[in-house]
From TrEMBL:
InterPro entries in alphabetical order: ABC_SmlMolc_Importer, ABC_transporter-like_ATP-bd, ABC_transporter-like_CS, P-loop_NTPase
Chain segments annotated as transmembrane: none
Protein's UniProt keywords contain Transferase: no
Domain (ABC transporter): residue spans on this chain: 6-112
Molecular function in Gene Ontology: ATP binding; ATP hydrolysis activity
SUPFAM superfamilies found in the cross-reference section: P-loop containing nucleoside triphosphate hydrolases
PROSITE patterns: ABC_TRANSPORTER_1
Keywords: Transport
Stated name of the protein: Hydroxymethylpyrimidine ABC transporter, ATPase component
Pfam families, alphabetized: ABC_tran
Length: 161
């Protein structure tokens, strides 16, 4: 899969909401296979890091992130450290970190691969619900068709070998 915006397309152009994407873009959020949470930062601090790096952190955006944490079951854990959370909770925190930047499209690179099978199914359901509620489009890379089916969203499939 072409990992835009990191790689230039070999042919054609990439558009998001009618605008051509030529480099990195705030319109595209990326969620890695692993959560990549910083162990020395609290869950809330991890969720805010993208805004801090981009120098876009405001009280309003901090409140938005706190609302995301509350809405998706992590509000009471916002002052906990990643090692104190389950794998599924860590993945939710990673998704909230991505959503904090308000991207139009999310690229999910095997977001459940680090989890045991039962947790993967549960988190796939939860993330599908979150994406629907937030009105986000996601492109998900997975080797497990059951994961894709559980996101409860309109799906198109692309097979590559």
């Amino acid at each position: 899969m072409m990992n835009f915006p990191l790689l230039k397309p070999s042919k054609g152009k990439v558009f998001v909401n009618g605008k051509e994407v030529k480099g990195t873009s705030g319109d595209i959020g990326y969620m890695f296979q692993r959560d990549h949470l910083f162990e020395w930062r609290t869950i809330k601090q991890n969720a805010l890091i993208g805004l801090e790096i981009q120098d876009k952190l405001t009280k309003e955006k901090e409140k938005f992130v706190e609302n995301l944490l509350d809405t998706y079951g992590l509000g009471e854990f916002k002052d906990h450290y990643p090692r104190q959370l389950s794998g599924g909770m860590r993945q939710r925190a990673a998704l909230i970190r991505t959503l904090a930047l308000k991207p139009e499209i999310l690229l999910l690179d095997e977001p459940f691969s680090a989890l045991d099978y039962q947790t993967r199914l549960t988190i796939a359901d939860e993330i599908g619900t979150i994406l629907k509620k937030e009105g986000k489009t996601a492109i998900m890379v997975t080797h497990d068709i059951a994961e894709a089916m559980r996101t409860k969203r309109k799906r198109d499939y692309m097979y590559c070998n």
